Amino acid sequence: xxxxxxxxxxxxxxxxxxxxxxxxxxxxxxxxxxxxxxxxxxxxxxxxxxxxxxxxxxxxxxxxxxxxxxxxxxxxxxxxxxxxxxxxxxxxxxxxxxxxxxxxxxxxxxxxxxxxxxxxxxxxxxxxxxxxxxxxxxxxxxxxxxxxxxxxxxxxxxxxxxxxxxxxxxxxxxxxxxxxxxxxxxxxxxxxxxxxxxxxxxxxxxxxxxxxxxxxxxxxxxxxxxxxxxxxxxxxxxxxxxxxxxxxxxxxxxxxxxxxxxxxxxxxxxxxxxxxxxxxxxxxxxxxxxxxxxxxxxxxxxxxxxxxxxxxxxxxxxxxxxxxxxxxxxxxxxxxxxxxxxxxxxxxxxxxxxxxxxxxxxxxxxxxxxxxxxxxxxxx
Amino acid sequence: xxxxxxxxxxxxxxxxxxxxxxxxxxxxxxxxxxxxxxxxxxxxxxxxxxxxxxxxxxxxxxxxxxxxxxxxxxxxxxxxxxxxxxxxxxxxxxxxxxxxxxxxxxxxxxxxxxxxxxxxxxxxxxxxxxxxxxxxxxxxxxxxxxxxxxxxxxxxxxxxxxxxxxxxxxxxxx
Amino acid sequence: xxxxxxxxxxxxxxxxxxxxxxxxxxxxxxxxxxxxxxxxxxxxxxxxxxxxxxxxxxxxxxxxxxxxxxxxxxxxxxxxxxxxxxxxxxxxxxxxxxxxx
Amino acid sequence: xxxxxxxxxxxxxxxxxxxxxxxxxxxxxxxxxxxxxxxxxxxxxxxxxxxxxxxxxxxxxxxxxxxxxxxxxxxxxxxxxxxxxxxxxxxxxxxxxxxxxxxxxxxxxxxxxxxxxxxxxxxxxxxxxxxxxxxxxxxxxxxxxxxxxxxxxxxxxxxxxxxxxxxxxxxxxxxxxxxxxxxxxxxxxxxxxxxxxxxxxxxxxxxxxxxxxxxxxxxxxxxxxxxxxxxxxxxxxxxxxxxxxxxxxxxxxxxxxxxxxxxxxxxxxxxxxxxxxxxxxxxxxxxxxxxxxxxxxxxxxxxxxxxxxxxxxxxxxxxxxxxxxxx
Amino acid sequence: xxxxxxxxxxxxxxxxxxxxxxxxxxxxxxxxxxxxxxxxxxxxxxxxxxxxxxxxxxxxxxxxxxxxxxxxxxxxxxxxxxxxxxxxxxxxxxxxxxxxxxxxxxxxxxxxxxxxxxxxxxxxxxxxxxxxxxxxxxxxxxxxxxxxxxxxxxxxxxxxxxxxxxxxxxxxxxxxxx
Lengths: 380, 174, 101, 327, 178
Description:
The structure holds five protein chains of five kinds. By secondary structure, chain B is mainly α. Chain B contains seven helices and no strands. Chain B has a domain at 2-89 and 103-133: Four Helix Bundle (Hemerythrin (Met), subunit A), CATH 1.20.120.1200. The radius of gyration of chain B is 21 Å and the shape is globular. Chain E has a domain at 49-123 and 131-158: Alpha-Beta Plaits (2-Layer Sandwich), CATH 3.30.70.3270. The chains are: A alpha+beta, B mainly alpha, C mainly alpha, D mainly alpha, E alpha+beta. The interface between B and C is large, with 91 and 71 residues.
C-alpha cells in the first residue's frame, strides 16, 4: 500500500498522518466478484475515494480471436461472461451469420430465444443469491441456487454442458430439443412463479433489506448515460432501453413483453428491475415454446470452412448485464483481422466507481453486488 | 488506643491477595514504562483488573464490578479507541526523554520515601470485619445521604459527554 | 496482609502513576498515569472503609464517585487530546508547549 | 482474621468446578456448531453434516481434532504479545461468566448478591480481548472489525442492561437465584414482554450474530477481528462466541423464562428446564441468523440509540411507576 | 405515531421472512449426497472425447485427417497416422487428448468426416499431475488393431477383385450418429 501511494508507513496501521487510511479491498476478497481490486481511501468507514483496479482476470480473448479461425473462437464466446454464456455464445453466432449472410431456420431461432431467456433467468437468479450473500443473507442464496439448478439441468440435457455452453453454431444450434425439454421448461416457469411470493416475503419486503437498498448507490440518469451504463442498471434509472425492443435481433420482435423500468436509480430499483425481468423472460419463453415450429435446426447446406468477404459487422444483444456487442473486421481470410467485444460490465463498473464516494464500506459491497459485474467480462 | 501495636498486625486480606497486588503493581509498572502507548493502555487495564480483584477481596464486590464495568470496559476501551484512530502511536526519540525520566523517577521515589515511613510508623485504630453493607444500603446512601453529590455527578457526566462531543467534533470542511 | 501493607501498596501504585505522569511525553500516557493515581486513592479509601474508619458504606460510595468522575475526566481529556492532535498533528507535551502562543 | 473469600469453599472445589465448566463449555461449543450447521442446512433445504457419526454428530469433534492438529501460524507483522494474549483474554471472561448461573435450585457455584452486575462486568472485559486481537493482528480488516465490535457492543450493552432492570425492580434482587425464585407464580416474560424483546434483540447484537454480525461480516471485512487467526487460536474465538451466545440465552432464561422452574406437576428436574429453555432460545437465534440480511453499521447504531434505548427507558419508567402504584 | 406504525410494519415484514424459512425447515432437503447418489447423466452429457467403436468393423474409424487437430481451439489433440498397406485411407497410430486443456466445445466432433469422435461419459476423473490427463484414445483399440489391419487388408484385396462384395465391409457404416 504504502509504496504505491509514495508514503513511507513503518506502522501499516498508523495511517497517513491524518485520520484517513487506505484499504486494499481485493483482488482476493469474498465480495469482489472474482478478482476486482478496489483501492479505498477511507476515513473510518466512510469512503473518500474509490478506485477500481481491473485486469486480474484478463485472458486476451480479443487477441486470441485474431489468432484462430472463426469457428475456433466459439468456445471463447461463452467464457467471456460465464454466467450468461448462452447469450454470448449465440450473439457471436448471430454476428457471424450477419457477416456471412447465413439464414437461420425458424426452429433454431425459437430454440435460441428459449435457451437465451432461460440463461438470463439463471444469471439473474445467481445475481439475486450472491447479492443477498453480499448483504449477509445466506438462505436466499441457496433458494436461488436451488431454482437455478433446474435451469442448469434443463440446459444440460440439451447442450450437454451446465455453464459454458458451446451450443450455437453458425446457422443454428448443435442439438435439437424434444418434448421433454418443452415440458421441463414450462414446469420451471410455473415453479419460478410459485417461488416469487417467497422471495418477496423473504427479501423484497424485508425491512432490513429495504434499509440497505433504498436510496443507496444512486446512479442518476445523466451519470448512467454518460458512462454508457446499460442493462438492468440503466433501466433502473428510468430509461426503457432494451436491445430486444430497441433494435430487435433474431425473432424478438415477434414476442409480447414489457421492458420493466424503475425511476429511482438506487440499489432497490436495480433489484426490482431484475426481478421483473425474470417474469418477462418467463413470458417470452412461454410464447416461444407455444410458437416452436418443426423443422431443421441447421441450414441445409453446411459449410466447414468460413471465409467471410472483406468487411465488418457489428452485432449487439441484450445480455443479462446489458448491451453486449461484437464487432468483427474481416480481411477475407479464415482469421478475423480484429474482433472487439463491447462488454456491459465494463461500462457499468466505471459508473460504480463514480458513485462510491461518500458511501460506507458496507454500501460499497452492496452497490458492487447490485450492479452485477462479472469480472472476467470486464477484463476479457 | 492501647492495643494499637496488636491491632496493626491484624490482617485485612488473605495472602492470596498478594497475587492481586502483584497484578496491580506489575500492570502499573508496565503501563508507565512500555514505549508503545497501546501496550501501556492494555497494561493499565491489567492493573485495573488487579485493583478490582483487590476490591473484591476487600469485600466490596459491587465496587469491583463497577471498576471492571466502567474502568476496564469503558475507560480503557475509550482510550484504546481514541489512540487507534487518531494518534501517532510511538513516542518521540527515547534519548530526548531520558532526563525527564530521571527526574520523574526521582520525584516518585521521593514521594514514596517521604510517605512510606509515615504510613509505616503511623498508628491506625482499625476495628474490623464490619460487613454490614448491602447493595440496597449502598443505593440508599447514594440516593439519600449523598444525593446532591450523586446528582451533581450525573450532571458532570452529562456535561462531559456534551463537551467531549463538541470538542472532538470534526470541523465541517470549508 | 495488614492495613499498613495495603496502604503501602496503594502508595506504590500512586508513585508509579506519578512517575508515569511526569515521565510520559505522550498525552495519553499522562492520562494512563493519572488513572493509576486515582486507583491508588480508591484502594486507600476502600482499605480504610474495610478497616472500619467511617461507616462501611461511605468508602464505597466515594470510590463509586471516583469511578464516575474518572469516566467524565477521561472522556473530556480524550476529546481534548483528539482536538489538539487534529490541530497540531502531535500529542507530544513538549512540542505542544513550544507551539504555545 | 481472614475475610471470607467469595469463591467456592475449598481450592479443590474450585478446581473441580472449573474443570467441569471447561468441559461443559467445550462440549457446548461442539454441540452448538453441529446444531448450527444442521439447522442452517435444514432452513436452506440442505442436509448438513452427514458423514462423521450418526447424522454427522461427530463432525464437530473431527473439526476440533483438525484445529488441534493445525500448525499455529503467527503472521510476521503482528504485535506479538497482543496477538497471543487476545484469544485467552476473550475466552476467560466467558468462562467466568458461565460459572455464575443457577442451573438448578441447588446447582450453583456461588450465588452472588450482585450476580447480574458481575455478568455485565465480565462481558465488558471481553471487549479488550477483541481490541487486542484487532490491533495485534496488524490488519486493517481486523482493526475495522474490532472497532465495529466494540462500538456495537457498547451501544447494545445499554439497552441490554436497561431491559434487565425492570426484572430487578420486580424481583427486588440482583442475585440470579433469587430472581428465579421470584418467578414461581409467574415468569417475568408475562409481565415484561417488551423488556424481553429488547433484551433478546440486544443480546443477539451483543454476540455479533446475524443480522447484527457486522464485526465479522464476511462479505465486507473477510472475518473481522479474527481474520489473522488460525488453528486453535481461532477455535478459542469461535468457542468464546458460541459460549457467549449460551450466556446471553442463559440470562434470558434466568431473568424472563423462570430459569429452572417448570410446571411443578411434571417430574422433570430443574436443570432440564433450564437447559431446555436455553437451547430453545439458541435455536431462535439460529433461526434469525439464517433468515435475515445484515444491517449496515450506522443503521445498527441508530437502531440501538434511536429505538431500543428509548423504548427500554420508557419501559423501565412505566415499570417503576406501576410497581409504585401497585405495591 | 407514524414511527410506531413503521416499526410495527418492519417487525411484521421480519415475521414474514421468518415464516418463509420456517416453512422450508419442514420441507425435504434437495441435496444429492454425491458419492452415495450418482448423478443421472443426460444423453448429451459432454466429457472428454473418445473414439466410437463401430460394431461393423470392430474398431474405430479415424483416418488421421487432422481436421480435429486443426479446428481445436485449445490445441489439445495430437494425431498421427500411417497408411496401412493395401489401404487407400490413412489410419491413426497416435490419438492423444490433453483433457486438462480441452474446453469441451465439440468442434472436433462437428468436423470429423467419419463421425468416429464422440463424448465419453466419465465425469469423475482425478489425478495428481497434469500429465495424467493426457488421454490416449487408442488404448481400447490396441489389442484388436493387428486383427483389424489384417481384416482390412484382406477386404481391400478382395475389393480389388471385381467379383467380390463392396468395399463397405472394411469401413463399416457408422451407426453412432449424433
